[in-house]
């Protein structure tokens, strides 16, 4: 019995445009441009809000700014996003406060650099806890560890919860509004020079935040 040989010709790759893919019912899983990504967020709003809750609990500045930009594009709702980020950042610091109050610095034994940063923040919180709670979410070097430091300080639970609730709301409204405003400005600034200026301002903001956090740390070390 003779076996027939089957040959398959492989032609050049076919490039399918987005419009052609929509016509034949193909689903593009990974968006390739910003409008497509925003449309993906719009289609999966519940998942986007859940992710924003998680990111806000870690005080993620850039992600929250982008979410504010997404609000301007219509992908997310302003009020819902503010509430989600408010609850997320509030809950994140409450958990970190509880860990700091319950375990102290015992769990930081294998991370001496982090332990030193937390202790510095705790000393600062004992002296200036009102300003610390209101503004610790903005500087890069402080926002991730301040919650632990509050728990290790002498700050009562009731005082922390009240101040943290107010500070979380201020942070959420400020960052989401800043992202929304950036979306409004970028929509009007269509030239490359304007886009470059917006990016430069964002980098400058992050740099200033880092410098301020280092100055706070050095001020406590000298005290």
What this model shows, in words?
The chain has 223 residues and is an all-alpha fold. It has one domain. Helices cover 75% and strands 0% of the residues. It contains 10 helices and no strands. The protein is elongated, with a radius of gyration of 24 Å.
What is the gyration radius calculated from CA atoms?
A: 24 Å
Low-confidence stretches: 10-18, 20-28, 190-194
Strand % is: under 5%
Count of distinct structural domains: 1
Which class best fits the helix and strand makeup?
mainly alpha
Topology, number of strands: 0
Secondary-structure blueprint:
Layout: H1 18-24, H2 34-43, H3 45-57, H4 61-73, H5 78-103, H6 112-135, H7 140-143, H8 146-152, H9 157-188, H10 192-222
Helix pairs in contact: 3-5, 4-9, 5-8, 5-9, 6-8, 6-9
Keywords:
0% strand, 10 helices, mainly alpha, 223 residues
Short synopsis of the structure:
The protein has 223 residues and is mainly alpha-helical. Helices cover 75% and strands 0% of the residues.
